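Researcher: Next sequence.
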Amino acid sequence: MFNRDRWKEILEVLTKNWFRTFLTAFGVIWGIFILILLLAAGKGLENGIKADFSGVATNTMFMWTQTTTMSYDGLPEGRRYNFKLKDVQLIRDNVPGLKIISPRNAARGQGDNVFYKTESGSYRIFGDYPEILQQNSIYVHQGRFINHSDIDKKRKIAVIGDGVRQDLFEDDEDFLGAYIRIEGVNFMVVGTYKEKSNNGDGQNAERQIFVPFTAFSQAFNRADNVGWMAITAHDGQSISDKVEGIVNTVKQSRRIHPDDERAVGYFDLFEQYNRVESLFTAMRWIAIIVGTLVLISGIIGVSNIMLIVVKERTKEIGIRRALGESPWSIKMQVLMESITLTLIAGMVGIVFGSLVIYAINAILDSTGPVDMFLNPTVSLTVVLSAMTILVISGLLAGFIPANSAIRLRPIDALRTE
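Model: Next structure:
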């Protein structure tokens, strides 16, 4: 079946007409190339968008206060209200399966609100608990982050973004332990943070300042008010399933009508993340379908050429049948020629596609990150699947010509001119 003479014959058939063989193979090369390129482009887009979620606890919702739209319990519509610290414990008691509840406050002045010596800038200030570090896409670059001792003792300390450090301090200046003035209140810098993934926008993202929630409330007269909350569910449990219970708990606590859908604002990050996942799953299937259709057109070309080859070798087949060669042997010969042509063309397409992907990654590495596009790749599973498709396609492409070959009667084949 796999003897030397058979392979020699296969090579002679494929090399007899180089131009025709190349044109036939090109359809398969182009099909597998398009398939790989589409899948790699989709993966690059997926990597780029998911990079924005890097370090963020995706099983999280964010909740904030809005204006009531319905009167309730003697209170008018159009009422502004605040969450309270006790609401955090109420949510924890009434909604099981929550891992982290981070109450937050934020402030930003109309003009410059942070000063250091002769330097100043306008930055967003957050009053936070230490757990926010597990929910956010930042990491401590130098020094430390807020801890619970800072919360308990209401320490006026600050963790600044690396962009803030560059704005306010000299490059060689020792900033840890320095005091900055935030809205007229002195805070000691104890650390800096950076974004885990910024896609080229790190300088803007790192222009924020984190201070202990309790120190923020005391310094800026927020009492026990909470501006908004970041709430994360335990692994294996969907925060989306808990949104209704969380919202209803704060509605009851803040005396809001149960049917008032606009009084509590929230954003379900987990739901949005799942939508992104679904989008990319659909994109992968579209790439597979489009690439496969292009590949099928190439396979049809292989099948047509093999029919022509069988027609050209009619007398040869008749002689081989007359000499006693079995129909199965002739059928196997045609099938192997089809599979060999398809596999060689497919491997060329895979190599060509891999080189193009390598070149794209090299360009991205040299030019820096591109928004929403990062590290386009194709997994080994995809390559192996493509090879499997090629083998099956080669068999299908050779099946009709092979059956045509064995249907020839030796006497009719010998009469053919």
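Model: The first helix runs from residue 4 to 16. The chain has two domains: 4-53+275-415, 106-232.
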